[in-house]
Design goal:
alpha/beta, 6-stranded mixed β-sheet, binds adenosine-5'-triphosphate, Rossmann fold, 10 strands, binds magnesium ion
């Protein structure tokens, strides 16, 4: 079943015919099978599915960090894979915040500077950017950890630095791969509430890959992926999950 498709232009993301192959030794493995999906503005969309079902691959393609083998992706009306590499990098920097499954923090700079990376890349002065980083970390209950290096932080604290970095430049699209995996219930909910705040704004959107059934109630929409296909698209988890 292909997911609900709206008219082009209303969607934050409009993905059509997305397929992705990976080489596995001599063989080619098809991981996504012609996915059509729109991610609507103003919504918090979850992507759920078993390990290996293609969630990370799909969201990586939807946010311009992994080329599809087939298909097209428009993000806010821009056909992102028709852009030059350089323009795609700029497009991502100005429009998209990611939280990766691995946090990818810079080990040699502290939490506040890590959180400020997108603003510095956009050209903001270091001190000012750092201040914004600190403000975002405070919202995540990390105000007393801002001058720590990543290795001095717990997994859940590092995850919150990665979340601060994804939100600090107020991107219109936020894409997160398991943002609450390392967090306790209370911190997890705080993160999801913050992501909801981001997503429900008009002209913005948020996609979250999650296994965390403690926060399923916060989603506007849940897409279920099975073996590289969307098998359910609704406001709740299907009965048998
Ligand atoms: N770079 C790669 N090279 C080869 N195969 C890959 C690569 N990346 C992903 N795959 C394969 O593609 C399939 C989907 O991977 P993906 O990472 O998208 O799954 P996932 O749903 O995010 O799983 P998880 O919940 O474990 O994170 C898996 O079978 C995986 O082994
Ligand atoms: Mg994954």
């Amino acid at each position: 079943m292909s997911a609900n498709v709206t008219t082009k232009g209303q969607a934050a993301i409009c993905a059509r015919g997305i397929a992705r192959d990976f080489r596995a030794g001599e063989q080619t493995l098809r991981v996504l099978h012609g996915i059509d999906v729109d991610i609507r503005k103003g919504e918090l969309t979850y992507v759920v599915g078993e390990s290996g079902s293609g969630k990370t691959t799909l969201i990586s393609i939807m946010c311009g960090i992994l080329w599809p083998t087939e298909g097209e992706v428009e993000v806010f009306g821009t056909d992102i894979y028709s852009l030059s590499d350089r323009r795609l990098v700029d497009f991502r920097l100005n429009n998209i915040g990611f939280i990766f499954q691995q946090y990818n923090l810079i080990p040699t700079i502290d939490a506040a500077s890590n959180a400020a990376v997108p603003l510095i890349a956009q050209g903001m002065r270091r001190l000012e950017a750092r201040q914004h980083g600190i403000t975002m970390l405070e919202k995540l209950n990390m105000g007393d950890q801002v001058d720590k290096l990543p290795r001095q932080l717990s997994g859940g604290q590092q995850q919150r630095v990665a979340i601060a970095r994804a939100l600090v430049h107020e991107p219109a699209l936020v894409v997160c791969d398991e943002p609450t995996a390392a967090l306790d219930a209370k911190s997890g909910r705080r993160v999801m509430d913050l992501l909801r705040e981001v997503a429900v704004a008009e002209d913005r959107a948020c996609i979250i890959v999650t296994h965390d059934n403690r926060v399923f109630d916060l989603a506007d929409r849940i897409l279920v992926l099975e073996d590289g296909r969307i098998t359910n698209d609704g406001t709740q988890m299907p009965e048998d999950e």
